[in-house]
Write a structure and sequence with these properties.
- This protein is α/β, with parallel strands linked by helices.
- The chain has three domains: about 5-75, Arc Repressor Mutant, subunit A, CATH 1.10.10.10; about 75-165 and about 255-285, Periplasmic binding protein-like II (D-Maltodextrin-Binding Protein, domain 2, 3-Layer(aba) Sandwich), CATH 3.40.190.10; about 165-255, Periplasmic binding protein-like II (D-Maltodextrin-Binding Protein, domain 2, 3-Layer(aba) Sandwich).
- Helices cover about 45% and strands about 25% of the residues.
- The protein contains eleven helices and eleven strands.
- Strands 3, 4, 5, 6, 9, 10 and 11 form a seven-stranded mixed β-sheet that branches. It has a two-stranded antiparallel ribbon with strand order 1-2.
- Helix 8 links the parallel strand 7 and strand 8 (about 210).
- The longest helix is centred in the first third of the chain and has 27 residues, at about 60-85.
Length: about 280
């Protein structure tokens, strides 16, 4: 069993397609088949089931087990590579991160810009996810580092705060709370949970609800008078002081913490460098 065979199998599980796996890894389709055969010979079990009638594959129970452990093994190899590089004074490698919408849309660009200037040999892969997706991605070794603003429950996750944010309920001045449409974020987002909590606390039952998957779209719908919603002060910007809008909570709903999430006891060196950079920046500001 070799590492490149595990990488091939991970890709095969995630794409469920031999040709797509070959294209993704820049290898031939026969090589994908060979890697799979070697793994199945090593474990003595079928890792996939092929369906010839529609050319799809199904991952066997044994295959799912190999997939989960392969992700963990490659995560540990990545950690080892980065630590060995550090012994030689090198900072390089691949940093996979994901951020929830507010952080992604208002802060991530500056973080990435500063980090790549400090460490130009690092390759960054940044994804946009909601809170629940970020936590699952950390737990399943799909990302090295998450940036979230909600409460994290999973005991396997280490949380490191780096700054704070406040939420406001805001809409066009002419909109009435009792009759307005409310703009919700999708299920699993911290913003949706905060809005639902505020509505319940104030005994408000929305007459109409629109659900969207972007904070910027929430802001645009507030600006054009479609409805009322709760957004970050960082995103609201000049709306907070404009006479065209009404704040329905003069005091912020609550102060929420922006925080990093990593697997407890298993952060990569690049994750540690990213967190140290951001924490230091906010200390100075």
């Amino acid at each position: 069993m070799r590492l490149h065979e595990l990488r091939t199998f991970i890709s095969l599980v995630e794409t469920k397609h031999f040709t797509k796996t070959a294209e993704q890894l820049y290898i031939s389709q026969p090589t994908v088949s060979l890697h799979l055969k070697r793994l199945e010979t090593h474990f003595g079990q079928a890792l996939i089931h092929r369906h010839s009638f529609n050319k799809t594959i199904e991952i066997s129970e044994a295959g799912q087990l190999v997939y989960r452990h392969a992700k963990e093994i490659l995560h540990q190899v990545e950690r080892l590579d980065q630590e060995m590089d550090e012994l030689e004074g090198l900072v390089r490698g691949h940093l996979k991160i994901a951020a929830t919408h507010t952080i992604y849309e208002t802060m991530l660009e500056k973080m990435i810009h500063r980090f790549v200037n400090l460490y130009p040999e690092v390759v960054i892969d940044a994804k946009l996810m909601n809170q629940e997706q970020v936590e699952q991605a950390v737990l399943h070794y799909e990302i090295d580092l998450g940036l979230v603003e909600g409460v994290v429950e999973a005991p396997q996750i280490e949380v490191t705060p780096f700054t704070f944010d406040r939420l406001r309920v805001i809409g066009r001045r002419e909109l009435d709370l009792s009759e307005a449409t409310f703009i919700y974020r999708e299920e699993g987002s911290a913003g949706r949970a905060a809005l639902e909590s505020w509505l319940a606390t104030n005994d408000i039952v929305p007459q109409r609800i629109i659900t969207v998957h972007s904070n910027r779209l929430v802001k645009q719908l507030i600006e054009n008078g479609t409805g009322i919603s709760m957004i970050s002060e960082r995103l609201a910007g000049e709306m907070l002081d404009s006479a065209n809008y009404r704040l329905h909570n003069e005091d912020p709903v609550h102060k929420r913490t922006f925080q990093f999430v990593t697997l407890k006891g298993q952060p990569t060196r690049l994750s540690e460098k990213w967190m140290a950079m951001v924490v230091e920046e906010f200390k100075q500001n």
